């Protein structure tokens, strides 16, 4: 037996003894991996990618720039967290599981897996390594897991006042930061009691990255900002007034003190400049105490910024970069490209992309998958400032208002509508001006985003993707608050008040326009009612987002109620709405 074969056999035997060997995948078999996350192993030898499309994990030899093995882990792996002793945690957003893995060189075994609430997206390891906190978007939950050797166990769940995404422990491990998936909220969670201490809010949406600086005194955020006072004409888009994309450095001590100025001693890199936007930032990696690199998912680029120096040094990478890591030597950055199954390599001294290599053979894309690429492509907009995803985060909504020609005029900003479960709810838009999703795709790209003529093929692909976006389960199911008696009583209240005139089941909308006693700033009084399905997942309501809770709709604005409701009746009506 040769020395190499003996070493390989020993490695395999050791790995099998440490867990169940996973199914190995041939990277030469055509597939659409869609890498969503990437980490660097502690020894710096391998890059590991979490593949959303195939549920696999690719192990890449960093210096050889090639995939050395690929392992079937689940259905849709979206995040990886490095743990001690060559272990790692993978999140499966389709099977709703946390999977504890062990790696020996290019071999991968499964140690344990535990069920999670719906839609897990991110995880954070406490500084002492004893616990892991996972964010689950649609149930609005944080889940704490205990890590005991090679065993995972669910410890506690925390219902949040918003849908969390990015999670990060501060260096002392006493506070966990949890950022809003859709808006600009940031929760300070007490790690010991696992309870919310305080909610901070800053002008942001699409918070896609949150990392500590090299000296651990600052937090870096990558996010977008939508300005409801700007209009989507060529002037305001060109100057970055409608949609800005930002890499922000914020003093950690100020963030942790609710009484302090959030932005005090902070600094912001604009990701984009007139004529050259940087739509949809997706990830950040810290290079050193002064520099960081940020990926721009919408423009297929990465940019290097220095603290307190204006602008970014930008370079082209692959389609829809989703994750970036920096080499231990601080000379190279590696970018995972989500829509072309590749990794780009950037020389950090020259800020230039020096190579790109494939994770494996990619199959031909379906029409829906081509539509997904277009939905996230900011280059469809004028100068690359925004994509469809910029406003419709994860196909949903950032809850903000935009003056975007949706009603064929400027001057009356409208709340951005969710696209989830919209396929059978035509017409589209607050004034019902688009009869089909294909027509809406043309209108959004050509009039709102000023991106030029959209081809019929691309419009159809976008429409196919939007039509495929499913509603998540109702919020009361996900939070285990479903009360059948209250829902039944609330349904009767809904019927007695003739809410079905505008919100007729089973779609809970109708195709007509109605005067509901409100008008916009252009004096429009008739609006198409949005479907109530999934309403429990929204945070703002009415055409101008004037209501910020379901209770406000009735208590503050008295929306279309024929009689005044008691507190119990209102509670039951809201229970019914949350069940839709």
UniProtKB/TrEMBL annotation:
It comes from the Bacteria. Pfam families: CCP_MauG, Cytochrom_C. Residues 366-470, 485-580 form the Cytochrome c domain. It is found in: Cell envelope. Its main location: other. Residues 1-19 form the signal peptide. One of its GO terms (cellular component) is cell envelope. One of its GO terms (molecular function) is electron transfer activity. Keywords: Heme, Iron, Metal-binding, Oxidoreductase, Peroxidase, Signal. This is Cytochrome C peroxidase. The lineage of its organism: Bacteria, Pseudomonadati, Planctomycetota, Planctomycetia, Pirellulales.
């Amino acid at each position: 037996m040769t020395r190499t074969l003996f070493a390989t056999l020993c490695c395999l035997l050791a790995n099998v003894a440490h867990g169940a060997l996973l199914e190995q995948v041939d990277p030469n078999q055509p597939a659409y991996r869609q890498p969503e996350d990437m980490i660097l192993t502690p020894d710096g030898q391998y890059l590991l990618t979490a593949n959303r499309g195939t549920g696999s994990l690719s192990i890449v030899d960093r210096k050889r720039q090639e995939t050395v093995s690929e392992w079937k882990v689940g259905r849709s792996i979206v995040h990886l967290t490095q743990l001690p002793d060559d272990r790692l945690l993978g999140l499966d957003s389709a099977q709703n599981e946390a999977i504890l893995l062990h790696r020996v060189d290019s071999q991968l075994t499964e140690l344990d897996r535990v069920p999670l609430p719906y839609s897990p997206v991110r995880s954070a390891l406490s500084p002492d390594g004893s616990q892991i906190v996972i964010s689950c978007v649609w149930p609005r939950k944080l889940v704490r897991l205990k890590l005991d050797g090679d065993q995972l166990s669910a410890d506690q769940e925390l219902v949040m006042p918003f849908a969390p995404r990015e999670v990060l422990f501060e260096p002392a491990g006493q506070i966990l930061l949890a950022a809003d998936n859709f808006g600009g909220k940031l929760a300070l969670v007490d790690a010991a009691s696992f309870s919310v201490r305080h909610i901070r809010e800053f002008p942001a949406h699409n918070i896609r990255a949150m990392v500590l600086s090299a000296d651990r005194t600052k937090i870096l955020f990558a996010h977008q900002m939508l300005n409801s006072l700007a209009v989507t004409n060529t002037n305001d888009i060109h100057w970055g007034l409608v949609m800005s994309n930002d890499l922000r450095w914020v003093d950690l001590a100020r963030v942790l003190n609710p009484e302090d100025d959030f932005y005090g001693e902070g600094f912001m890199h604009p990701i984009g400049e007139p004529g050259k936007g940087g739509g949809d930032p997706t990830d950040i990696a810290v290079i050193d105490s002064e520099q960081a690199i940020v990926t721009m998912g919408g423009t297929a680029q990465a940019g290097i910024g220095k603290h307190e120096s204006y602008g970014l040094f930008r370079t082209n990478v692959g389609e829809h970069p989703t994750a970036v890591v920096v080499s231990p030597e601080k000379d190279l950055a590696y970018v995972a490209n989500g829509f072309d199954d590749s990794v780009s390599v950037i020389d950090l001294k020259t800020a230039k992309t020096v190579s790109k290599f494939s994770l494996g053979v990619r199959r031909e894309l379906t029409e829906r998958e081509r539509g997904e690429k277009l939905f996230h492509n900011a280059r469809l907009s004028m100068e690359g400032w925004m994509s469809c995803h910029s406003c419709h985060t994860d196909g949903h909504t950032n809850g903000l208002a935009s003056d975007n020609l949706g009603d064929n005029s400027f001057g009356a900003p409208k709340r951005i509508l969710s696209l989830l479960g919209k396929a059978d709810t035509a017409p589209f838009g607050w004034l019902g001006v688009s009869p089909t999703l294909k027509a809406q795709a043309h209108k959004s790209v050509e009039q709102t985003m000023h991106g030029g003529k959209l081809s019929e093929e691309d419009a159809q692909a976008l429409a196919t993707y939007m039509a495929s976006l499913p509603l998540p389960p109702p919020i009361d199911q996900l939070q285990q608050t479903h009360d059948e008696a209250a829902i039944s009583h609330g349904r009767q209240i809904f019927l007695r008040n003739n809410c079905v005139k505008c919100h007729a089941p089973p779609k809970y909308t109708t195709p007509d326009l109605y005067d509901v006693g409100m008008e916009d700033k252009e004096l429009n009084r008739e609006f198409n009612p949005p479907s109530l399905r999934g309403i429990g997942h929204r945070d703002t309501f009415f055409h101008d987002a004037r209501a910020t809770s379901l209770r406000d709709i009735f208590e503050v604005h008295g929306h279309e109620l024929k009689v005044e409701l008691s507190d119990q009746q209102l509670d039951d009506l809201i229970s019914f709405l949350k069940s839709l």
